[in-house]
Amino acid sequence: AKRQGKSSYAHFTPEMHEQSHERLQMESRLRRALELEEFELHFQPILETATGQLRTVEALLRWNNPVMGMTLPDRFIPLAEETGLIIPIGEWVFEEACRAANRWKLLTGRDIDISVNVSPRQFRDPRFTGSVKAALSRNDLAPERLELEITERLLLDNSIETADILRQLDREGVRLAVDDFGTGYSALSYLKGYPFDTLKIDKSFIHDVTQEQEAGALVRAIINMAHSLGLTITAEGVDDALQAEFLKKEGCDLAQGYFYSVPLPDRDFTEWLKIHYL
Ligand code: C2E
Ligand code: CA
Ligand code: CA
Ligand code: CA
């Protein structure tokens, strides 16, 4: 295409132009979203399979823009990562999550844990650990109340920095979870070197767990491996009773999914808490 000189512009189709225009528009909207207070957190409970008790609550980001409506994170987190906007957005998420945990404590009189997703760019930012600590202390929240969910993909690089940051966070007392476990194609050796507390089995493994024998066997093996390593195991994407029953029977510690509750906006989650815990 290089030899074509100026005719190479022909490859820039109207459709692509449309796409990049849309992207630019989205980027400029995203830049203003924080000041316009367009973000909100939805909350999904993570329960003990054996008792049905609430263990922690995952904070899931939503972007509510007047033009675009409610946008799910998969549609804007990649752009936020590329532009670095994920750093101020992520700080907002931590602050909001800590504040929510405090409100729930006032409401129920119990300590309720909160789980927050961390993307690679955020994690590698030199100010990250400091900003997590700051959000905790501003909100007077003990570090053990907070769990950071880090995607397995981030561990692929196997770098010394990654290990250092994880150890630093572990020393601070926050809990660490591997998110999307089983999708990162990483060597499992990281599991013995890094200070994780929890493995979250990706929902793609849970989907067929009661349909296919192999899927069931795989999840059973992951549960057993996690337990041999002293890790808590969570299943995500549990969306029916049969899956829930299977996971309980196989000793999977925690579960999350539409079967128990969809992610709820703050007001609805507060109602959920009242119904289950007051
Ligand atoms: P994730 O961390 O794997 O989050 C679980 C996703 O599964 C959520 O999608 C949740 O709504 C969805 N889910 C929950 N239960 C079920 C179920 O039973 N069946 C199915 N099919 N799906 C279920 P969501 O909220 O669209 O979030 C997508 C991803 O965006 C998250 O995946 C996470 O990686 C990322 N994300 C969300 N919030 C944040 C955030 O505050 N910061 C960062 N960096 N990433 C975030
Ligand atoms: Ca997650
Ligand atoms: Ca720890
Ligand atoms: Ca996942």
Automatic annotation (TrEMBL):
EAL domain sequence ranges: 23-277
Protein name according to UniProt: cyclic-guanylate-specific phosphodiesterase
Span covered, complete protein: 525 to 802 of 803
